[in-house]
Structure formats: structure tokens, C-alpha cells
Amino acid sequence: MLKTLLEYGYTAYEQMKKAELSKTSATSQAPVSTEARPQHVLLSGETFVPERKLTIPVSQLRFNLGQETAQLQHMLRKKLAEAGIPPGTQVQLRKTEIGTLAVEARLPQDIKDKLERSLNASPEMRIQFNRVSQHKPAVEFVANASRLQKLYGADNQALKSVVSGDASLNSLQDIAQRLQQLRQTQTPEKPSASEEKPFELAISI
After folding, report:
1. Which of 158, 195, 162 is nearest to 178 (CA)?
2. What does pLDDT average to in each consecutive run of 10 residues of the chain (205 residues)?
3. Which of 116, 162, 166, 192 is the most buried (most CB within 10 A)?
């Protein structure tokens, strides 16, 4: 009986030993990745984090500006219809130096004066005109600067100052305000002819 127990113990020991050897062999044969992760290390030893590429939302800005311009045109057409302006009349709307809206059209002076009074008496009309007149130059600036940046392949610092890396901060109003701030710090004493030209809205009813 003692012999049987010894044989049983020896057999169990041999099975455990084989199991351990099998586990060790499987572990040693497992593939080990030797692929090095890409790193950007400066000569100083510091890790360099590449700057995220700035996304220029030109198409979205143009779309939003188009919607605002269409709304302004709709408001102007409504005012022209209320004033009884004949169909086919060419009308230009601009802002004077004192901030009032002025009409350029082949109309009798009394009718034009009445139309201008109606336009200036409408806060919605003046707010919408001011909005479009501020946003249009901003969109044109971003579109031109983006085109030049792609053409020459160099970063445009002025464009980076106007367009935020956070897409949620790139509304027409945000960009127009940054552009205005940029021009206030960089505009020479005498503005260029393109900057002196006021915004005008031309429409035909």
C-alpha cells in the first residue's frame, strides 16, 4: 500500500512539473513587439508636441454670411414694397459718415426721403445692416488669407490671430471682432482705399 501511495505521489508531481514547463514554454514563445513608438524629442531632451493644424471654416463662414445677406435683402424688399417703389428699380443701401442709412436710386427726392426715414426708424433694419457690413469684410479677409496660406505654404500669423483653434469660437461675430481688434493695433494712421470704401447693398426689386 505504501508503494502505491509513493507511486501516486510521484505521478502527480511529474504531471505538475510538465504543466509548469508547458506554461513557461508558451510564455517564452509569445511574440514581443519591438516596434518603437514615434517620438519627437528636442536636443534639450524635452518632448516636442506638434502644433495642431488650424482648420479654416471658409465654406461655413460664407454660408452664414449668405444667410444674413439674404435676410437683409428680404427686409429691404419689404420696405421698398411698403413705400410703393416700382418693380425693376435698382436700389443701393449704404451707411453715411454719421451712421444713418442712405438710399441711392433713381427715385423722386420726396419718395427717397420717405424711404430713408422708414429704414432708419427700423432698429431691426439698422442692426441687420450693421451686422452684414461687419461680417462681410471678415469673411473676405479669412478667405483671402487662407488662399494665400495654401498658395505659399507658410503660416499666416494674422489669420491665426483672427481664427481660433476652437471651432465653437469661430462664429461670424467672433471673427469680425478679432479682425477689428487686429486692425486697431496694426492699421496705419491713414487707412488704405479698400478700407475707406463703405459697405453697400445693391438690390433690384
Report:
1. 162
2. 46 58 50 46 53 76 95 92 87 90 92 94 95 94 91 86 89 93 73 55 68
3. 162
Confidence (pLDDT) at 56: 82
pLDDT of residue 155: 83
Residue 109, domain extent: 58-204
Residue 202 CB: number of other CB atoms within 10 A? 11
Chain-centre distance for alpha carbon 103: 33
Q: Name the residue with cell 425693376.
A: 88
Query: Residue 200: which of 67, 84, 49, 96 has the closest Cα?
Result: 96
Coil, helix or strand at residue 92: strand
| Exposure letters 141-180 (e unless 16+ CB within 10 A, then b) | bbeebbeebeeeeeebeebeebbbeeeeebbbebbbebbe
Write down the pLDDT at residue 57. Answer: 86
The domain total for the chain is 1
Assigned C-alpha cell, 192: 488704405
Tell me, yes or no, whether 50 lies in a domain. Answer: no
Strand partners, 202: 92
Query: Which secondary structure element, helix H or strand E, spans residue 14, and what is its range?
Result: helix 2-29
Residue 141: inside a domain, yes or no? yes
Q: Residue 199: its pLDDT value, please?
A: 72
Q: Return the pLDDT at 18.
A: 59
